[in-house]
Amino acid sequence: MAITPQWKDELRARITLSSLVQRSVKLTRAGREWRGCCPFHDEKTPSFYVNDQKQFYHCFGCGAHGDAISWMVDQQGLQFMDAIKELAGMAGMDVPAPDPVQAKRAEQRASLIDVTEAAQRFFVESLAAPGGKVARDYLERRGFAPAVMREFGFGWAPDERQALPKALGQFGEDMLEGAGMRAANEAGERYDRFRGRVMLPIQDARGRVIAFGGRILDKRDGVAKYLNSPDTELFDKGRTLYNLHRAAPAARQTGRVVVVEGYMDVIALANAGIADAVAPLGTALTEMQLELLWRMVEVPVLCFDGDAAGQRAAMRAIARALPLLAPMRSLSIVRLPAGLDPDDLIEAQGKGAMERLLAEPASLVDTLWEFERDAQPLATPEAKAGLKARLMAHVETIADPEIKSLYRRELGDRFSAFAYPPRPQRAPSAPMPRQGQRGPWKGAPMPPPGLSEEARRQLSGIMAGGQRKGLLAAVIAGLTRYPQEITRHTEALSALARHDPRAAPLVESLFELSETLDSHAANAICGELGQPAPPADIRYAFLDEGTSTGDACEELAEAVSLLVERPALEAALAATIARFESDPEGSFAEQTRLRAQLMTVDERLKAFGRRKAAQAATGDDTA
Description:
The chain is an alpha+beta fold. β7 (182-184) and β8 form a beta hairpin. α3 packs across α4.
């Protein structure tokens, strides 16, 4: 086999670059990198850095840059194959034997590059010829500087079907077609793929021409505005970023790389002096293109038009990136004003306006939240539930477990703040009960004023103990005794209402109670009504008058936690069982985990009850 890019990637991964460099250069740790004086030029202040994570070295003084292989070639003076053999020995790898098939393909690729390079020279000459005046006028109207036009290699494809065979007669039809320069119709007639278009060369990371992009001057019905070369032995659009070979050195200086939607946007930014921009080639960003970007910087900036199409493009990029996120590897997003592309914005407001947008991009999580929140009206509970489902579906695509957990919490917190905003305070709508007025059971106060009739009925039932027994009744009674604790447990009580329908009206009653009363006294309800506290249930310290407020509230919190956990686990178990047919293996493992958690909660409930009973028997009313 030949020495493939994959084999070289494996070799680099097995070599710790800093250890290799330290054989001849003194390095010191500088954060996540290593720093030392550059071996490629004389300097007294260190400007040479080695990054093991990204597997490259770089000197900010002389611009020297490379990986382990180039270090052995440029610094140690070895030939390429000797460097490969030396490093393979260090890494414990066998050097692949030559592969005749791969060697032939490499030779063919070299021959095809001869075709594309010759075609580029022809297009540049055609732009300068009299027939290229219409294209020169167009480029002048676009405001491209002559230096930028030369740097990016603007050319002109004459509006003829057989111009290339005449100009590139040294290459046969098969080579022209293999390089993507010619095509054939159903009748077998071959013709130039690019005709009547301003041409731009597409180059690989080494700056070699591997393909072309062409733009028509005026709109024509049925004719694509932009046309790129097809995939060939040289060119894979999903693995290529336009302008990468220029942007990579610029990005090392700025610490930033900007991804725009098309190559004309790249050139518009370069024309304004922003050199660290790249673009995909007619497709949404691919996994390989994202990897290329992350090799340059940790957080590339994606710049999209502010219209609906730009928004959809941003979400496609985010969806592609989520499974690939890793620590210190993300994306940031810039949305241009509606109706403007980079060229329009720079022309209207100047380079400074573009730089200000690029300096303050939105994070990936911000963009994801805002897009889904604004995707459709959220006027009903069902629509809000749909928002949460969409957000959690995105989270589930993240492969890194720590990042997945953090995204789940971040988006969950944002959803909760949005869907469950604080309730406004309401003034009591009924007079306070008279001194001595009693509730439906002896010694109990009347339900607080300001509640609906249904809420009053539910709360009175709980106080009387006739509708709810055990822990639920005790918790409700405890929260009516200490209403200042209701706000503390709002999230848990909301979860209880979602998972246990019988508790929903009772929870709503508590929320209404918390809005009606504004007291921090331990016996707020009874004190407000001028009545003694309800009779103590010595099984629960939070219902015993002899317990301090702090101890009572702590035990009440434990009781709320126990009350909420089981219904939530039961709901999760039911959902897991429901998807058993579509995911038997994953569902079974999840069921096992949830059942174990249910058993743990049951044991805690039993222990809690036994502890209360023991306290009642001994007269110890502390929690």
